Amino acid sequence: DARGLKDFYKNYFPIGVAVGKRNLSGEEGALIKKHFNSITAENDMKMESMQPVEGKFNWREADSIISFAAQNNIKVRGHNLCWHEQAPSWFFTDKAGKEVNKTVLLQRLKAHIDAVVGRYKGKIYAWDVVNEAIDDYSTKYLRNSKWYQICGEDFIIKAFEYAHAADPDAKLYYNDYNTERPEKRERVYKLLKSLKDKGVPIDGVGLQAHWSIYEPTEKELVTAIERYSSLGLKIQFTELDLSIYPWEKNKRAKRADESDAYTAELEARQVAKYKMVFSVFRKYKNVITNVTFWNISDRRTWLDGYPVPGRKNYPLLFDTQLKPKKAYWAVIKF
Ligand code: G3I
């Protein structure tokens, strides 16, 4: 069959994948061209990759992703402009090693966003402007990151304003994980609502979708989509994968175990979960504007060894030989 995932979903939404420069040639490159019409840089557009040293930008990897996309008629999602991880420490300190004040930090954020968004103006159609600003603890609201400590909530507002000024046509997203869990969902909703109420230029919310074969339930997924879209926001599923291990057990497991095998039973559950989530996605095609997988195949995924060292995971639609898995056939049959 010459058709790929993107063809089956052409009347729904673009289908994306997270990549690095190394993935763009050979058999992986061919697989990307066949199945995907959107790409995201897995790491190459993050703050430390783009501007490792103040004023010294590194465009090499990001440029090659952009030109691969242009040559193959693939859209690009930008990931990301402001995050507490993979943000180099020079942002937060002066030459003497002292913490900078809010004015200086916001100037640096603006200079970064101007340069990055400006360079790819018209080439990146949607940006994750702020990533993961909500705290992990249910009793807290915004994450106590350096950004927050120095700027308070303003860093979020300003990041969107700077991005909008640098490319008024780019769609701007707030991106986070565990966004279907009820208590986190409500804290994310609170942030999104406050941004909308203040007139901040935000187009939508990125739901990362680092899920597992155990969660979310259909009800949790539907409730989240309806809750966020009630604010008039679009939704993109930005980092989809379905771990074969439950996240809660992960926290306790210290190392890989012999029982950590990809059994037929686990695969069957994964097929069912993929089927469910894609059938929900199709129902909400009017608000969902992108669905992106976090990596191409089970050959290499960020979940290998995370959070349990040495443990292999199998969260995607293509196997370690790049062949479509049962879950692939399940999501294209509708
Ligand atoms: O590039 C260096 C390499 O030179 C070095 O030899 C090697 C040794 O560890 O590290 C390499 O860098 C790693 C980088 O991935 C590239 O592979 C970093 O250590 C590693 O921390 C980094 O992990 C990335 C992670 O974000 C960082 O927090 C993952 O690949 C990437 O998949 C992951 O993606 C995040 C999203 O951006 C946001 N949402 C969650 C998602 C999963 O954590």
UniProtKB/TrEMBL annotation:
Coiled coil: none annotated. One of its GO terms (biological process) is xylan catabolic process. Signal peptide: none annotated. Its EC number is 3.2.1.8. Residues 1-334 form the GH10 domain. It catalyses: Endohydrolysis of (1->4)-beta-D-xylosidic linkages in xylans. InterPro entries: GH (IPR017853), GH10 (IPR044846), GH10_AS (IPR031158), GH10_dom (IPR001000). The keyword Hydrolase applies. It is an enzyme of class 3 (hydrolase). GO terms for molecular function: endo-1,4-beta-xylanase activity. PROSITE patterns: GH10_1, GH10_2. SMART domains: Glyco_10. The active site is at E239 (nucleophile). Keywords: Carbohydrate metabolism, Glycosidase, Hydrolase, Polysaccharide degradation, Xylan degradation. Belongs to the glycosyl hydrolase 10 (cellulase F) family. This is Beta-xylanase. It comes from Pedobacter ginsenosidimutans.
